[in-house]
Queue: 3 jobs
Job 1
Amino acid sequence: MNKIALTAGALYAIVLLRAGGTFAVGWLAGAGARRSRFAGRISSVKFRRAEKAIQRWGAPVVAVSFLTVGFQTAANFLAGSMRMPLPRYLPALFLGGAAWALIYATAGIGVLEVLGRLFAEQTALGVSVVAALLLAACGLVVYRRSRAALPSRDAAVEEA
């Protein structure tokens, strides 16, 4: 249990720094955009309405974003760029970050222990599993790149 607590504490510190830093970068980017040539677009009625909604209701989205993969950075950046007040943002950061740290600490340690036992007791099977995972990942990368390299149907129709 001590191992999980230590790992969760370290992950919690990391997520607070990372997500808080993303929020700060978003805040600075939003401030810069408000002083740029985009200031006219940002001051529109629709944008102000969206900004007010995010400032008021965005905290639950920020907290839940920590339970997703790939959305938490966007949610924290958007919260910062839309000037979510710190009294609303910080509780969401603390709760969501704690959930993220606990999930990754428990699941991460569990996976590492299973892999350790697998390699210790059945090395050939462990190597086979890791090799299969690596081949699957490489195959996925090759498949995605080949799909991205193909011209889309719209482009083919336009050329004809």
Job 2
Amino acid sequence: MGMSVTISVATEQDAEQIFKLQYLCFQSEAALYGNYRIDPLVQSLDSVRQEVAADCVYVARLGEEVVGSVRGSVTDDGSASIGKLCVHPRLQGHGIGARLLRAAESALAGERGAKRFRLHTGHRSENNLRLYRRVGYETVGTSQGSDGVPMIVLEKAAEAYVATA
């Protein structure tokens, strides 16, 4: 009998697994850009712990193992920034990323009053762009990450959460 993946709020005890998973998952992004100094790869464990304590952080679990995570926070203007969505490479393509996004969107809108969701991904990250567009995000602009990677900025209104949930 196989285990199913569950989505839940991250706890302080999850920080180290999130940190290790993030490092594993973002290797392919780093390779895509030839830049191994991208933000998710240089983030410290203490910084991940701080985000778990302060932000809206969800994890996907397979048994006791954290196999996915996402983070979000809401600014004063009601925009929710969603980031560092990652799913273990062996489990990608099974809808876990979309489930994590829905959990974060639901909490950010319902518990934290988000009016719109915003996220960004590298301009060459076709799989990420496909997922985000499939769940209702639209391109609203471009930016450059602090790591120098050209980024595509995507948004959707919080009301759109209901349509994609």
Job 3
Amino acid sequence: MKEKNNANGGKGGRNPKIDPSIHRHVFRLTEKENAEFLSLYETSGMHNKAKFIISLLFEREVKTVKIDKGTVDFYMRLTSFHSQFRSAGVNYNQVVKLLYRHFSEKKAAAYLYKLEKQTAEFAALCRKIILIAQEFEDKHLKKEH
């Protein structure tokens, strides 16, 4: 009998795996999360929870978002400036109406001429800001493919 065991190599059990899964990760779920996980697992039709989790982790595309504080700050300031620019446009319309209502035609035209000069400067400044914003967007915000 001893001779028979020696002929088989003397070892029993399973054949060892080529690439065994030796790394273990543990996570905890709340009741609600666990119920959702079990629901997803049951609808998947898989028979092994570990394989189901692995398929979720590695077969789906995971998107990562990198938030640049400087970009967010620039966007917030640009948005604030845009709202100020819009309010200046509303004020411009109100000033024109008031000029024609409270002054003579000649005096209103003189004030409108001054206002027109300021508006031209304001428009030039706006164009510069738009160019700077587009340049910033091209350099820092465009997605690289």
